[in-house]
Design goal:
Length: 330
């Protein structure tokens, strides 16, 4: 879009002119994502299933595409069988960047709550949240996230280990991880990992992605609870102990269920819309009640069926410095 590509619906209309008449296709990515999904939801999607919109780059010419956007051009050819030089590319919003994560301070030290440092534990990048993004990451802020705070994490970790004492370890420190892996690998269940993962992806896409309501979030929470039960009955085909990607995907699916539940549970509690969080039932931003970060804590058995039993939500204030919050207008 930055080079001049145009988003079009099935009829060829440049639909962003309706949503953002001034900046059109250069609107922020959260706004563009919602517009794309809305076009499809209202029946203007392209393709045999009317489930995507089109990114038209044909007017840019081969030289621009091959020299300025070679990776994207090749991706379209390789994975979609589409040549952007002569035909539009099917596109839809997907997960792009994690703006939340493990809470840290400016030194990349992990916090167990809003203020308490966990000695010797550091985090940086997409797994961490030092709160440089707010609710909508700006372009190139990912470089700040990993380069600045990755460097701080490394430097501070080096300084920490210079004086840190060894801590006592349990007799069998690998016991929990070993039991997790062996339990999944040897589970005599019948559920297929790929089937559960696809169900989770589809339901999160439909009900907790760029548009959300209390009803849709409640529905997907019920799906996650059902999938948790089915996950306990999964089957891993590969019983090997080397390069076992089947087992790896089984482990990852368990964590995906945890993360999906936290995302949905926290989203349901935030009764407003801002940045990447859009509630159709609460379309306005509510700075009076929600100008704060959502903090989630595991307080019980994560395998219990009710999220209320094992997730506790808290809040962390947003510190306003040079730039005062204002309404977004385009």
């Amino acid at each position: 879009r930055g080079e001049g590509a145009i988003l079009r619906n099935a009829s060829g209309e440049r639909f962003m002119e309706r949503y953002a008449p001034t900046i059109k296709d250069l609107a922020p990515r959260d706004i563009v994502s919602r517009c794309m999904v809305q076009e499809v939801a209202e029946g203007r999607g392209a393709g045999p299933h009317k489930d995507y919109v089109l990114l038209d780059c044909t007017h840019l010419g081969a030289e621009v595409l091959e020299t300025k956007l070679p990776d994207i051009t090749e991706f379209a050819r390789t994975y979609l069988g589409v040549d952007p030089v002569v035909e539009p590319v099917p596109v839809m919003p997907t997960a792009h960047y994690a703006m939340g994560g493990i809470p840290t301070n400016n030194d990349a030290e992990v916090l167990s709550d809003n203020t308490t440092v966990v000695p010797g534990l550091y985090a940086a990048g997409e797994c961490a949240c030092v709160s440089v993004h707010g609710s909508n990451r700006l372009g190139t802020n990912s470089l700040l996230d990993i380069n600045v705070f990755g460097k701080r994490a490394g430097r501070n970790a080096v300084e920490y280990v210079k004086t840190a004492e060894f801590v006592p370890l349990p007799d069998d420190p690998a016991k929990d991880v070993r039991e997790l892996l062996e339990g999944l690998r040897d589970n005599p269940g019948t559920e297929r990992i790929a089937v559960l993962r696809k169900t989770l992806q589809d339901e999160m896409d439909r009900k907790a992605q760029v548009f959300r309501t209390d009803e849709s979030l409640g529905e997907v929470l019920e799906v996650i609870e059902e999938l948790r039960g089915r996950y306990r009955n999964i089957h891993v085909d590969d019983k090997g102990k080397r390069y076992n990607t089947d087992l790896l995907e089984a482990v990852e699916l368990g964590f995906l269920l945890d993360l999906a539940e936290v995302v949905v549970y926290a989203a349901r509690n935030r009764k407003e819309s801002r940045g990447g969080h859009m509630r159709d039932d609460y379309p306005k931003r509510d700075d009076e009640n929600y100008m704060k970060h959502t903090m989630a804590y595991l307080t019980g058995d994560p395998h219990s069926s009710d999220a209320d039993d094992h997730i506790r939500l808290d809040w962390k204030p947003v510190v306003i410095t040079r730039y005062q919050p204002m309404e977004r207008k385009y």
